[in-house]
Amino acid sequence: MTVPSFPMCIDFLPDGRLLVVDSAQRRLLRREPDGSLVAHADLSGVSTKPWNDIVVDERGNA
After folding, report:
1. Which sequence spans correspond to the domains of the chain?
2. Distance from chain centroid for Cα 18
3. What tens digit of pLDDT does each residue of 31-48 get?
4. What is the distance between the alpha carbons of residues 44 and 34, in angstroms, rounded to a whole number?
5. 10, 18 Cβ separation under 8 angstroms
6. Within 13 Å and on the Cβ side, how many CA atoms surround 4?
7. Residue 29 CB: number of other CB atoms within 10 A?
8. Predicted pLDDT of residue 24
9. Least packed by Cβ within 10 Å: which of 21, 34, 52, 54?
10. Predicted structure pTM score
């Protein structure tokens, strides 16, 4: 999976995996240990506007 748009923001899950905001596609991507990117959350149903920020708490809530 690729990120066609400029990643607007990143943060890390408690286990160290990277989360990337794909603003143009309104989704949250997760980088797996093998380097692949997978969909972590589809945000398109929440807002029609692009997303640009993320915060992850100590429990892993993004």
Report:
1. 1-48
2. 8
3. 999 999 999 999 889 888
4. 27
5. yes
6. 4
7. 21
8. 82
9. 34
10. 0.82
Report the DSSP beta bridge partners of residue 41: 28
Report whether 20 contacts 3 (CB < 8 A): yes
Q: Which residue has the tokens 């991507």?
A: 29
Q: What is the C-alpha separation between 54 and 23, in angstroms, rounded?
A: 11
Helix, strand, coil shares, percent, the chain, to 5: 0, 30, 70
Angle, CA of 21, 38 and 62, to the nearest 5°: 45
Signed CA dihedral, 57, 59, 60, 62: sign only? negative
**Residue 52's pLDDT band (cuts 50, 70, 90):** confident
